[in-house]
Amino acid sequence: MAALTKPGSPGQHGGKKWLDGAVGYEVYVRSFADSNGDGIGDIPGITGRLDYLKWLGVDIVWLTPFYKSPGHDHGYDVASYSEVNPIHGTLEDVDDLIERAHQLGLRVVFDIVPNHTSSEHRWFQQALADPSSPERDYYLFRDPAPDGGPPNNWPSHFGPSAWTLDEASGQYYCHLFLPEQPDLNWRNPAVRAEFDAIYRFWFDRGVDGFRIDVAHGLLKHPDFPDIPQIKPIAADAGPMENFFSFDHIYDLDQDDNVEIFTRWQDVAAPYDACLLAESGVEAHDRLARYVQPGALDLTFFLKPGWMAWDPAKFLRELVGLAEIESHGISWVISNHDQARPASRFGGGPEGRNRALAVTALMFSLGGVPFLYQGEELGSPNGEIAPEDRHDPISTRNETDEGRDVCRTPMAWNTDPFNGFSSVEPWLKAADRPLDFTVAGQHANAAAPLHRYRRLIALRKHHPDLWRAELKVIDSGRPDVAVIQRGTSLTVANLGSQSFAINLGSGQWQVLFASQGGDGDLASGIVNVSAETTVILVPAA
Ligand code: NOJ
After folding, report:
1. CA 239 to centroid of ligand 1, rounded, Å
2. What is the C-alpha to C-alpha distance for residues 10 and 415, in angstroms, rounded to an integer?
3. Among the atoms of ligand 1, which is closest to the Cα of residue 73?
4. What is the pLDDT of residues 104-158, one digit of tens each?
5. Between 20 and 30 A from 90 (CA), which of 145, 350, 370, 506?
6. Does domain 17-117+191-354+366-437 have CATH number 3.40.190.10?
7. What's the CATH architecture for 122-174?
8. DSSP structure class, residue 302
9. Is the pLDDT of residue 11 over 60?
10. How far apart are CA 14 and CA 468, in angstroms?
11. Active site residue 213
12. CB-based contacts of 441: which residues, under 8 Å, 6+ apart?
C-alpha cells in the first residue's frame, strides 16, 4: 500500500494542492441543460454551459451519475459503470466535457455508486440466473428468517423492508434503497477489484475525482443482526421517517469502511484525483474518520441540508464540526436530495437571506464548500403537481412530495421552459419568473447571483479564510458565531437580534456582508444585523 500521509495542517488534502481553497458546484445532469431537445439534460448541454460556471468562479464541477441505467432512481441505479446512458450522450461527449472544462481551468468530479448496482447490471442478472456463479457472492443473499420472512428488521431508505425475496432460489437479497438497487458485498475481494478497475477507467480518461454515493453504507455487519428501533413508528409514516426510527448500528457506518477508503486512495493518489464521500453520518467524530490520514480527501457533512431554520443548532453543527475537522469537510446546505434552503428557511427574501448568511459562514470554515445548481439564484422549491412527481420516494409511497422540488430544471432565462430545453422537460414545473433566472439576475447587480459570485471570489483573494488556523471566539450568544482565521474575522449572526462587536482600535474593512452594503466601521464597533454574516479583514 502506498504510504500516503495526510498532513493535519489546514488547506492540505492528501497532498492534492488543487483542492486548497476550492469551491465546488453540483450539476444535476437531468436538469441542467438539454442540448438535443428531448426534455432531459445531457452532457453536451453541460459542456455548453461551462463558461457560466467559469464566470461564477467555482473550481470543481460535480456531475450526478450519467451512466447506463434503467432510471428507477434517476441514475443512482447503474447498469454499467463504463457506459454512458444514451439519454445523456456518448463517451465522446464525456471526453469533450472533460477537455473543455480543463481548458477553462475547471476540475471535473463524477459520481460513483458503489453501495449498490442496478438490478439490470449483468452481475446481478448472473447472480439470479445461477446461484452457484461467482457473481452471486457480489451481492448480499441470505436465507429467510425461521418464519419465512426477511432475514432481519432492516428498513430500506425508500421503504419498507431492505430485503426482497428471490423466489427462484428462496433467498432474500439486501437493498438499502429500492429493490431495483441490490447492495454489493464489499467483503468480497472480487467486488473490490471490479471497482478499482472502474476508477482507473475514468481516471485514465482524465476525470479529476469522484463523489462516492452512500460511502457510509458499503460494509454491513457480517452477522446481519436486527437494529434497535428508537422511536414509535406512526401508521402513516413516510419511508424516511420509518428509516430514521431505527439506530443504524449494523447496516451503516461500520468501522471497517475506512479500509475500503484507504484502498481507493491508493488508486486515486497516483492520478492526483480526489475522493469525496457522500456520508449521512451525523456524529462529528465519526465523520472525521472518513478523512483520517490515508482515507478520503473530503466528506460532505449532510446534516445542515436536512435542517429547518434553527440558528443555534446550525452553529453547533457547523462550528462544532469545524473545530475538530475543518479542511476535510465539504460544507453544503443543499443538494439534489434536499429541499431548497431558501424555502426550508422560511421562503421569500427572508429564506434567501438566511441561506446566504449560512453559506457565508460555511465559506469561512475551510474545506471545500459546494453549491447546488440554482442555489446561487436563491431558488425556492419548484412547484410540481402531485400527478407529475417522479421521485420514487413519492411515486412508490404516496406519503410525501419527495425530492422533485429541488430537481426542477435550471432556469437560464425567460424563453419557453426557462431556456433549459426546447420541449416540455422531463419534470413538469411552473416556469420561474425573470428574477429567478440566470439572465434576470445577471442584469441586476443586487441579485443573489452577484453576491454568491463575490463570496466565491473572496476565497481566491483571501486565503486566510480557508488556510489559517480556525479560532472560535466566544460571542456570548448561541445564535452568533465569531470565527477568526489569520487576519480574517467572520461574524455569523443567525439570531433575530442585531449583534454588536467591538473590534478595538485599527481599521477594518467589510469584505462581505450577506445583507446590506459594506457597513460602517468608523467607531471600531460593528453592528451586525439580524440573520447576517459579515466577513472582515484589517483595512489595507
Ligand atoms: C444518495 C443520492 O444522492 C440519492 O439521490 C440516491 O437516491 C441515493 N444515494 C441512493 O443511491
Report:
1. 14
2. 45
3. 7
4. 999 999 999 999 999 999 999 999 999 999 999 999 999 999 999 999 999 999 9
5. 370
6. no
7. Alpha-Beta Complex (3.90)
8. -
9. no
10. 17
11. yes
12. 377, 435, 447, 448, 449, 450
**17-117+191-354+366-437 and 122-174 share one fold:** no
Give me the count of residues in the chain: 540
| Closest protein CA for atom 5 of ligand 1 | 337
Distances (CA, A) of 484 to 227, 284, 367, 478, 488: 42, 21, 15, 17, 6
**In a 3-state reduction of DSSP, which class is residue 361?**
helix
Q: Is 493 in contact with 516 (CB distance < 8 Å)?
A: no
All three cell numbers of 70: 434503467
User: Using the 8-state DSSP alphabet, how is residue 230 labeled?
Assistant: -
Cα(341) to ligand 1 centroid in Å equals: 19
Task: Pick the catalytic residue from 93, 213, 253, 325.
Answer: 213
Alpha helices for 205-256 (secondary structure H): 239-243
401 is catalytic: no
At residue 516, what is the residue type?
G
Separation of alpha carbons 47 and 453, rounded Å:
20
Q: What is the DSSP letter of 500?
A: E
pLDDT digits (tens, 9 = 90+) for 255-295: 999 999 999 999 999 999 999 999 999 999 999 999 999 99
pLDDT tens sequence across 177-227: 999 999 999 999 999 999 999 999 999 999 999 999 999 999 999 999 999
Q: Please state the domain extents for the chain.
A: 17-117+191-354+366-437, 122-174
Handedness of CA 534, 538, 539, 540 (dihedral sign): negative
Distance 398 CA to ligand 1 centre (A): 19
Q: 138-141: long-range contacts (C-beta < 8 A, 24 or more apart)?
A: 138/184, 138/185, 138/188, 138/190, 138/191, 138/194, 139/173, 139/174, 139/182, 139/183, 139/184, 139/185, 140/173, 140/174, 140/182, 140/183, 140/184, 140/185, 140/220, 141/166, 141/169, 141/171, 141/172, 141/173
CA–CA gap between residue 233 and residue 506 (Å, rounded): 58
CA distance 448 to 212: 30
CA 76–ligand 1 middle distance (angstroms): 6
Ligand 1 surroundings by CB, under 6 angstroms: 73, 76, 113, 177, 213-214, 278, 336-337
Q: What is the pLDDT of residues 329-388, one digit of tens each?
A: 999 999 999 999 999 999 999 999 999 999 999 999 999 999 999 999 999 999 999 899
